[in-house]
Amino acid sequence: METPLPPCPQCTLDDVSLQGTHYLCNTCGHEWPAELAADEELVRDANGNILASGDAVVLIKDLKVKGSSTVLKLGTKLKGIRVVGGGDHAVEHGGYMLKQAFLRKV
Ligand SMILES: [Zn+2]
How far apart are CA 33 and CA 22, in angstroms? Predict the structure, then answer.
């Protein structure tokens, strides 16, 4: 039995095909990794926009990095985030786990 493909996280339509390890939306052309799409829990930014790996975000708050003296400043732009999912620190960038509630997609 074939498992149904998940709808596109970008346009929510379900005309989706599996291309190797990625899903491709035939409607808007959005591509996303298959293993993330299998996760029901979508990661959303401060505005409720869905975050995907490869997105760029801006910090909406100064963020202290756990276990170091590094502070990521409000307004810092992070390109090419990695959405790892799970819990409230579901975004990784440069080895830091970030709280998606303090990020805004740009
Ligand atoms: Zn789409």
Answer: 4
